[in-house]
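debug: dumping io for the single-chain case to check the tokenizer round-trip. Nothing else runs in this session.
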Amino acid sequence: MPVTVYERILDLLEAEGINTLFGIPDPGFIHMAMTAEGRGWNVIAPHHEQAGGFMADAWSRMTGKPGVCFGTQGPGVTNLAAAMIVAAKENSPTIFFGGQRSRIAYQRVRRGRIQYLDQLDYFKPAMKFAGSIEEPEQVDEIVRQAIRAAMSGTPGPCYIELPLSVIHETYDWAPVLPPEAYRLVHQAASAPTVEQALDLIRSAKNPVILAGQGVFTARSQGPVGELAALMACPLLQTSGAAMVIPGLEETTFAYGFSPAGNAAAEASDLCIAIGTELGEPLHMGVGRHWAKNDKNRKWIYIERDATAIGINRPIDVPLVGDLRDIVPQLVEGLKATPRSRSAEFEGWIELQARFKAETLASVPVGMTPVHPARFVVEATAKLPKETILVRDGGSTAIFGWTFSQFQASDIVWNQNTGHLGTGLPYAIGAAIATEGKRPVVLITGDSSFLFHIAEIETAVRKGLPLVTVVACDYAWGLEVGCWRKQVGPQSPETEAHWGKWVRFDKAAEAFGAIGEYVEREEDIWPAVERAIASGKPAVIHVPVDADVNAMDAPNYDEFKSWYTDFKAGYGSDV
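debug: decoded output
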């Protein structure tokens, strides 16, 4: 029986377990959105296509499946561009559908065609795959190739163009195939390399696991936690994946931002890198905290893309494949010979406990406006364990690395891109992915929050349990610090500040959310607690000390060491 193109696309996505669609319905996509909603899908219309792309990205991270969004021809697709680029940089398998003029309009030799851009040529360089469905019989091959490309090797986004002349066409397709019939869904490592890895693990004195964002976006926390337990070793967080696997709270240390993490990295004689690019925030695995003992350290690298092996540093045992398949191979091989903790490891656990206590004790009390560190402490001190934490901002994010009191099992943000304004859309995408069953708390700076503030209405419309706590310095805080450090204390700080009359609590109420204005530090947590208990969208506006926010960001030297072009001799002391 003939089926329309848009219905077939939904059929193919459903075969992958996808049931959510983000986008602003327009003449090209209204039937797809209407049909999806009729099938019981979540259909979410943002107020800006860019925000919809970020929502789909977060949905993907929380489910391990490709996120899907769409934009209308011309302006809608143009608005998706930033989200597409962020997804590419963050290795997020997001499928972007773009509308397009009909073929006859596309091919005509004419000037001044309205709402027309050569979209494929613009986006091909950033996408893992970009294709246009010219005829109905192409639907299966193009949609499957997009999913295949998005989920194979290093994950990433794909773009599919849907001309108006095609989307309503019908065709008599064969039955929908399951994913394993048209793409690689399992990719274990070869038995010989697994044995080599097991030999290194068994002979190591002080191994560490370096867990990147890929561990969490693959939803592989359980197997990686089991591996860490069998190895009796520290789990080092990357700054982009500062999450904790349940059960490993006291043995998880932040690389670069905790003495225990740095000590464990320096002393390690084996590092198993999982779900990470070994990029600049990790000093490529060769500099800074790795440099001291580099000649004595072996590396096992679990990586889906064979061409990534050995680029940033030599690898002793590459395990090429999907971490969801390889980590269980290592677990199975170690079950008969679990390790015991080393004396050094016990010392690092004690060091970490002291560091956390001393860090908390160092946070100033009683300042008005609130000290940014105290803002983070109070906002995160008692969050429910199931909370999804979302980050956004410059200085606010940096203060969060050091002073957050919450060991989150899921954190959503974009370290690799550093793109401001993703926080609220990410929070909505994460809440939709978990069907509103987990509270979502966004800790953000004010400048970042302003990017997509209209999406408060989206959260209200969808009834999401989303609490936003905004640190307000009424400025581009990190940039104010750059002005003062580079130009001097009397710098003009051109356009680095904005109106102190802005009230996010009042804006939230105007959108239909709960709004609170909090000036005293002791009132921050009670406000957060009330907001979480309500189960509704809420915004808490907290003024913070602008000078501290600009000039005293903690561990700034560590942050600056990520940028190789700040100094010669990468890995040397800052």
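debug: round-trip ok. Residues 343-361 form the longest helix (19 residues).
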